[in-house]
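Recap for those who missed Tuesday's class. We walked through two folding examples back to back. For each one, the amino acid string is listed first and its predicted structure tokens come directly after. Nothing is annotated here on purpose, so try labeling regions yourself before you check the end of the notes.
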Amino acid sequence: MTGLDLGQLAFAPLLPLPVLLALAAVAVLAVALSGWRGLRGTVLRGLAALAFLAALAGPALKFETREKLDDIVLVVTDRSASQGLKDRMAEADAALAKVTAELDAMPGVDVRRIEVPDAEVEGGTLLKTALARALAEEPQSRVAGAILITDGQIHDPDLALTVPAPLNVLLTGRKRDWDRRLKITEAPAFGIIGEESVIGLRVEEQGAMPAAEAGRLVQIAISVDGGPAASYDIPVNADLELPLKLDHAGQNIVQLTVATSPGELTERNNAAVVQVNGVRDRLRVLLISGEPYAGERTWRNLLKSDSAVDLVHFTILRPPEKEDGVPVEELALIAFPTRELFVDKIDEFDLIIFDRYPLRGILPAQYLDNIRSYVLNGGAVLVAAGADYASVESIYYSALGDIMPAAPTTRVLEGPYLPKLSDLGKRHPVTDGLEEAWAKDRPPGGEGPWGRWLRYVDVRHARGQTLMEGPEGKPLLVVDRAGEGRVALLASDQAWLWTRGFEGGGPQQELLRRLAHWAMKEPDLEEEALTATVKGSEVTIERRTMEPGGQHVAKVTGPDGKTVYLPLAEVKPGLYAKVWAPPGPGLYRIVEGDLERVFALGSASPREFEAAVASGDLLAPLAEATGGGVTRIEDGLPDVRAVRAGRPAIGRGWIGITPREAYRTVDLKLQPFMPDWAWLLVGAGLMLLAWLSEGQRRRAG
């Protein structure tokens, strides 16, 4: 719509403004002097001066042709996940249809429809952010109002926002809705294995709680790594501490679930996941050595170089057959605490290493029986065999023989040979990638992947897994399980040659580190393992197996109960993987074969459901500051009407917008108030009348 606006006065001065002001000051003084002297025609002189000044100021009438601009109303609809609860989305659609229909029927109103989904990164409803972005794109002088259709649970309430027109909130949801929410108040990032950690939690009641539900005990189920759940009855609206004791290193996923009651708004916020990284406070290692040799120092240096290892070294410095006449009571000031180590505190060790240890009556048979029981109950033993293992004094012929992965043949082969990874060793996590890793770090010199060893203790009947082979493909490194524990046998005492750099050296430190941690059941070194690593919005599913070939398909169950099947592709021998983008946040369960794993993407209880009961409390201050307010849709959809600026924009059954009467100037014309010659004629005439009036007074006098 266009129109003509009249009556606006403009000026186009012929002289600069300071000059005009100076002339005006002179004229005022002259007229004042004339009046002080009592001269006739003073008024006429003043009018003449005013006429001349007006001529110099250039007064003109301004005529504008204006085009009226439509008022803009922002209609923002919340499309986040919480709007999917019950019939909220239907309420929002009905409100949107009625509001937009009434606004479209108003002349001169332009509707901007904005939809707000879940935030991409952290989830949640960033409603004020979307409104601020929309306001920044529109001229403020045209914004006549904003209408928000939402459940009120926004996640940017602290955003400073100025709305130049009335803002009204149409609230979805029901007054009678109620819900319970599990909230984690304290979650440790890591926990020490075997020691107690604490998870802080609270079950909150929200909304109009029914009398039968309010304040009663609720049941919570707690499981670790998807294992069997333990259930407890706990109070609501109280801060609680859950004791947690981790039993393995690496990632531990603790899932907590509160039982859902009938009538509860949603169960999506009844679960929480806490990921705790299990670490060992100190790795307690018992090193039992035979007679000193070059490799003993290597073992000791390797273990002592790790500040997390608490090493106890039991070594034989004076064998029984050595007769030098020194009384036994003078050999040491303090007796070595063998009973304390091998009876009272043996279960406190994470690993026991036998380094070229022969049976010479130093350790009684009872102590070796205790070590065997220690392994069967979950302990770990690593044997670095020398010539002693092939002799009649071999520990194989003790109680430990039942758990040894290979038997000696009494032969010791002297001469150089190259340790090689077996086909199984190329798949096993203890030795997988050793050659590639060493190739990057090895110093110059030597041939082959690493240096040769010079002694091999011949073994047979290897019943475990042979990871490395010696001369003629014979077992060199064999690992096995015994009861709940693990045993490893290295059929040579020449690994120290790698440390000394013989023929270029080799990855002795990395091999022994992996071997020791495998024996202590580190999750990253498990032969049969299923892992899930979350990075951003994607998860990498990996399946490690010792079985060659075969198809591996991961069954993934999402937080909504839906199941997908993901074929895993072979990345390298023994490792199958798949990169997958889950459809949304929550707790997922993976099953592949007889292995099971859980992982959490984002939060098990998404941000959208932290507070599920609809409420206008977060938006009411902003709405009321603009003259608007909050209206529940369940009370009836309001009409939309226009109200004058400064008047309330909400009432019983209606909400308002404020017309802004904004326009755009499409044409502008200036018409002089009078021609210049007319101003001169008027001024001259007034001066003439003043002169005649003064002359008449003189003649009369």
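Example two. Treat it independently of the first, because the proteins are unrelated.
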Amino acid sequence: MKRSIRPRAAEPLGRRTVQALAAGVVLATAGGLLTVTAGTAEAAVNCASPVFKRTFYANTGFSGTPRKTDCDSAVDENWGTRAPASGLPADHFGVRWAVTRDFGSGGPFSFAASARDGIRVYVDGVRRIDLWQNVSTTRSKSVNVTIPSGVHTLRIDYVNWTGAANVKFAYQPRTSPGVDTVKPLAPAGASLSYSSYNARFSWARNKEMDLAGYRVYRRLTGTPYGSRPLATTTSTSYTDTSLPRNGAVYYYEVRAVDKRGNESTGTADKGVTTADRTAPAAPRGVDRNWSMEYLDNVDLDWDANTEPDIVGYRVYRSTGRLVAATAANLVSGSAPLTSSWYYGPLPKTGDRYYYVVTAVDKHGNESAPSVVSQGFETRDETPPNETALNARAVESEAGVTLTWDKSEATTDDFVGYRVYRSLKPRTPGKSMEVERVYEYVQGTSFTDPAPQPGVTYYYWVVAADRAGCLGTPSATMGVRVQGNTTAPPTVTGMTATPKENGVSLDWNAVDDPGLDHYEILRGTLVDGNWTYKPLVDPVTLRAWQIAGTHHDDRVPADGEQVRYSVVAVDQYGNALTPDSGAAVTDVTEVDLNPDADATPAATGAPLTSFAAQWQGDSSWVSWILSPAADEGGRKATGLNVYRWNPATHVFDKLTATPVERPGGGSGGYADMHLPQGTTSFYRVTVVFDDGTESGAGQTAVAAR
């Protein structure tokens, strides 16, 4: 039932409505923003697509000046029995919605309208829905419409004659299978930029209402686009961070995709030339180069690279198998080699040299080094860099001392300086007698301790390397040697300490530049006079030349009173004697002699020679037995060896059975259990064929 006409009530602002003042000042939207402008209600309002422009009329014929104009995002109102806006009647009014928008590629749409009283829907002025009756209930209608591509205008007219008023309209693309076969339009406004090795591709947003997103494709110049996109996005730009850095040209296009999966054609190609930061492959075949001979030159070859932008190769060399591609190791020159082989000299340093090769492209990218070549042996003919500059010679009590300045230039295989001496000045290129005095001098000085006095010598110094190559000789230094006859001063602080295995001697070092060594004199008292003999080195059988200030005289501890003198000897053999001022010290040896009544008695044995010698941890007791028989005709068949035991005060027999008499009469016995750090006394007896035993001969040995 239609209602009766009621007084019009003022309407509050709707949830999607921007109210405009009917006269004077009105609210308008420009680009989505509300602005206040003066003028007529309709002319003042601009609504940005896809927002509807809505106009209110106080009649059902949409005539005259609209009472109100505003923007509405959707057609969906239920005014009931109220007036739709201030200044309008509750009955017999009209409302018109209109929007002009770009539908892109267009396609199938669904229009749905419902209203109580009349509603009409137009597309570009063509009526598509017509429900135009004064009714008391809401009526609805849906239609399928195909919208062509491009810009079109929708208009919805609604009138209320009497009673409650409500209206609703919606439109949307149809995306079900078999219905939507219209592809989106290709995106417009595509642009491409390249920076920091990345490509940024952008485009304008498509107008299709059913747009799902975009697919970005990339191809290498000369190749087609693939079936799979590089990226899928809903944005209107894409930054490609995966571009190879190889200097190639790549092209891009973007295609729009709707919700049904229809894909547009691609945009026009946009190309970019990438920066080439891709190095070539390392050359192959370098490791096949080798030689077993000493070479003066090396001849390398390798397989040529196949990259189209190769401009050449660089060759590096080092004495280690890890050849670094550095400027210091580069041997092929600053410009890359255009051939795949290299020929060049080998340094004559005696080192083994290894090579690697790199490839270089036209953008300056250099490959990793190749596999290292086999090593090439060289002869060392390169003199060392060291030179003894500003050489000078001075004679002193120490001898002739040569000094020179430290060399600024150095060589890895330098082993030291050689010192040469001659009786004539050095003359390059002339044969002459030359004496190499010393070699391997590491410092900057050398002393020739004892050149012959009264002779003029000429010295020079030359650096040498491991291969024996010699550097530049120093200046020749001539010195007439004066020599000296002055003995070093008296040794002080001398002490002699008797021990069970000898006498321990200590003294202070003598401060004398010509000191060569010390000698020790051992004196014994003979007919009231001291007689001295030097201690003898058992290896050289000469006077013992001692470098330090301590010596142990390993003599048996038999209680003898002796006198020692330590003398300093210079390089010319000058030394004091006890008679000319050398210090002496007396000492009585420890007395470890066997008891006087010990047996076998030391009454002598028929031995021509008899002695004991210390040998490491043991001793060797030796003898010569003569004659073969005694005066009574008894024949000697063997010998027994005894060692004094100070703990039990008896001679322990060391031979379980007599040592057989050897042919010729000479023989001996090894005591493998010699007591250490003391003196051991031995007695040896001869055993005859009748079982009797001779008296004993005695000897002693001092062990460490």
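Answers for example two:
Confidence is low (pLDDT under 50) at residues 1-41.
The two ends are 143 Å apart (CA to CA).
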